[in-house]
Amino acid sequence: MRIGALTLPSNLFLSPLAGYTNLPFRLVVREIGGVGLCTTDLVNARSLLEKNKNALKLIETRPADAPLAVQLFGSVPEEMRDAAAQLESLGFASVDINMGCPVRKVCNVGGGSAMMTELGKTAALVKGMVEAVKIPVTAKMRLGWDDDNLTAPDLARALEDAGIAAIFVHGRTREQGFGGTVNLAGIRKVVEAVKNIPIIGNGDIITPPAAKKMLDETGCAGVSIGRGAFYNPWIFQHTLNYLRTSASTSKPANVVAAGVSPRHLKVVQFAPTDVGGCRKEDGELLPEPAFADRVRVMCRHLDLMIEIFGEEHGCRMFRKVAPWYAKRFGPCHEFNKRVVQVSTRAEFRNVLENYIRWRQQFLDGNGELQPRYRPQPMIASFMREAEPASTQREHIPVPKGPVEVW
Ligand SMILES: Cc1cc2nc3c(=O)[nH]c(=O)nc-3n(C[C@H](O)[C@H](O)[C@H](O)COP(=O)(O)O)c2cc1C
Questions:
Q1: Does the active-site annotation cover 299?
Q2: CA-CA distance, 225 to 333, in Å (whole number)?
């Protein structure tokens, strides 16, 4: 997978989730493996130039956290340009621009929405950034404001002409928020609109078959995963394995590396399914991580939070993180109720030990959850038409935060 001059170990990306995809989480994901590029939470370009303490904390990184992109937000071309140059001098792999939602009144400070409505102005801002740095400059956008205003293909074309190196597209409109189905045909239109740059598809990828379906049906060169990684930090490793072992006719990453536009890829029609919307023989699905593995990784995550943010602050921040791990534990209300009160590592350990004891009542003789207590399989919005009628589904929750601007 290549983005400009940058060669990445895989075509799987960690999406920015403000408040969640910080250094500790990125390290957790990288230790498990499979991810090609991570992106920081959104950072205000001006705050970065002013060396604001919070902005600097957002770009904190380590050698083990490479390659890393920083996502910038802003509308003043000079500030965006200078912030990009600053990031390049600090050694970051690439700079991503948040293009947010597409209607001016929604974002009256001129970033995000204004960027999608004022193509000329946005292209000029991007050109200024591209000319100021050698590292790739990328952009992240939605499909448009609503189904009648799918502006992403036009914007993508203008940005490619301005020198952007890749585009991340969340396959929903601003009006959709996080509801409804991710529009694979919409992402495909963006793929078809550009000549050479890779388009990275995004939205609702929570299983390896969902990643493959997005790659196959849109021709995108890679996929970016946000909330799915919070449920399951193994998703990159498992997806990479699934893609490598599948007999797909579509190999977008290789084709892009060879300089062939992904829009020329053959579109594979999805066949009747038996595993989360994909035939088993399409690839090897590694087993879901065991409870003990999830607990081990969760504890590692907390250790890193404490190391990077200090014990009290790290534990407080972890109050909103731990319940994401717990979503795959089976019955977990005893854990969630108590973990939101922890302020020290010792308190967390205590909550965990009590929970492990309490959870034993739901186990069978082999120490596995009894079938009726097992969490339901996760199914992406765009896999539902292929879903067996008998399968119950769980929607992907949206964490608290200013989600209306993402
Ligand atoms: C809590 C939260 C924070 C987010 N923060 C950002 C952000 O800082 N920058 C951005 O471009 N997108 C942000 N997003 C959007 C995600 O990157 C992604 O496009 C969206 O969640 C869909 O992908 P997913 O279904 O894999 O999560 C955020 C989404 C959520 C739910």
A1: no
A2: 27
